[in-house]
Amino acid sequence: MNVRLAGRRLVDNHFHALTHRNYRYFWFGQCISLIGTWMQNIGQAWLVLTLTGSPFLLGLIGAVQFLPVTCLSLFAGVVIDKFPKKNILIVTQSVSMCLALTMAALVFTDTIRYGHVVVLALLLGLTNTFDMPTRQSFNIEIVGKDDLMNAIALNSTTFNLARILGPSIGAVMMALLGTGWCFLLNGLSFIAVIYGLTRIKAIPYVREKKKDVGIFKEIKDGIMYIAGDKLLSQTLLLVAVVGTLAYNFGVLIPVFTKDVLHMEEQTYGILMSCLGAGSFAGALTMSFLSKKGPRRKLILISSLALSVFLILIGLTRLPLFTGLFLAITGVSTILFATNSNSTLQMHAKDEYRARVMSIYSLVFAGSTPVGNLLAGYAADHWGANGGFMLCGGLSLILCLGIILVFRKRPEPVPAGEPASKTKTA
């Protein structure tokens, strides 16, 4: 009885989003599906390196996968608000399941070629263009504003626990049974999240359709709204820099494992799990702190810390220090991502939220093609250690620049207020 009471207090105090029935269905489905996603991520990276032996071609896969996000995110944000988000997610998750099972079939029949991986990565990227901003803006419909940050932190906890378990399980699967099992288990894992979505009963927010307002006008309105808001614009610029330069682990870590540490897939899985362990710790910390709301200072500090530790990873040659620095990097990534995501969703007006989150997806995930190509090119020419140092150094310089510029930028003056009341950050 005392254990049950203690459990209820823990949930009420630190994981309050789980008190919402709809969110529990969504969260438990994600717990299973995301493990499969991370198994596929490391399986795909190792498969491409095995097929081609080229870090640049591995980076190209990442670029292709996120190219649709880059090109179509602005349009996706306008479309998403016009349909129930639950229905969109059922479609996108079903398509992702079919793509994973197709990849598994090609690997098991030994007919997989690099071109197949490119095409399937492109189709997955197209699916994710609509899936990512929909998931982001769906949270508020199933938990409300009061528990939004807690839900985002719990999502990050799940994502990063999967980042620990997925690569570990995937590495064992690849070593014992072959890469195809990573794709097969990922495909089957989508059943859990699709079932959870069918059980959710939420009142959807569908924006009223405006007559004679074209899609380009709606995109322009969203961009102008963000540009006129200091907090939104600074946060999104930092997300753009970090998303482009700091999140190239999928390209650099496998190459670093092979070429710098001279290790095999088991070490690769362990290093990815170290990154996940640090991220999990950061997400769990944010779950406990979520009642205090997002913190702008944490966004600024974590963007700089993340950049510094990327440089340190590039300087190390020992697996132990590589794993340690990746774990600390993981903590920084979650402090940055959780606070940025929460800030954008809670600060944006309801009618602009999906458009703001579609631009968030654009600058965070849509910038990945540029980052992956840069990281792949750097790894090809200067080694994976050079890639880490280049990405970390550029990220540090640009984040510092953005922070300094916005310190001098005045806050917008509300209508009717004298200019003398304007404050600087």
From TrEMBL:
Pfam families named in the record: MFS_3
Record PANTHER family: INTEGRAL MEMBRANE EFFLUX PROTEIN-RELATED, STAPHYLOFERRIN A TRANSPORTER
Annotated GO MF terms: transmembrane transporter activity
Tagged with keyword Transmembrane helix: yes
Major subcellular location class: membrane
Residue ranges constituting the Major facilitator superfamily (MFS) profile domain according to the UniProt record: 17-410
InterPro entries registered for this protein in UniProt: MFS_dom, MFS_trans_sf, TM_effector
UniProt name for this protein: MFS transporter
Membrane topology note: Multi-pass membrane protein
Segments traversing the membrane: 25-49, 55-80, 87-108, 183-200, 236-256, 268-289, 298-315, 321-338, 359-379, 385-406
Subcellular location: Cell membrane
GO cellular component terms given for this protein: plasma membrane
Protein keywords: Cell membrane, Membrane, Transmembrane, Transmembrane helix, Transport
